[in-house]
Amino acid sequence: EVLALLVLMFPLLRGLALHLHSAVTGSYIPGTHSIAFVTCLNEQIAKDIARAIMDKKLAAYVNILPKSSALYFWKGELEESTEILLLVKTRTSKIGELSNYVRSIHPFEIPEIISLPIDQGNPLYLKWIEENVPRD
């Protein structure tokens, strides 16, 4: 019974230990922050979604990348279009909320919202992300 409790508590205890170590040493815990990719139909929609994300404080920084070509399958057919890509820098803990919010305002039936954890980077920049995106 004690062993089962320890096994269940291990992820929580490990997380607390990592955060304590990070706070004491000033080191970055890989995966604490993420970059989310969101595709948009055009620049106006991209700007509107980026502004909405920032207004909700779901990100510290959003890049709006220029038009690119895309090929994809939609309803069994090969489609070709152009799109604008948002690169959204945020806390990993905010990805679920970010995804839900973007889905609620995005005009696509199934918007692309995917994320990758940030393994390492400029410690000052990563700290800046943390300071600009409120904790859960």
Automatic annotation (TrEMBL):
Signal peptide segment: 1-17
Gene Ontology terms for molecular function: copper ion binding
InterPro entries: Ion_tolerance_CutA, N-reg_PII-like_a/b, N-reg_PII/ATP_PRibTrfase_C
Keywords: Signal
Source organism superkingdom: Eukaryota
Biological processes annotated in GO: response to metal ion
Cited PANTHER family: CUTA DIVALENT CATION TOLERANCE HOMOLOG-LIKE (PTHR23419:SF2), DIVALENT CATION TOLERANCE CUTA-RELATED (PTHR23419)
Family: Belongs to the CutA family.
The protein's assembly and partners: Homotrimer.
Protein name per Swiss-Prot or TrEMBL: CUTA protein
Lineage: Eukaryota, Metazoa, Chordata, Craniata, Vertebrata
Gene that encodes it: Cuta
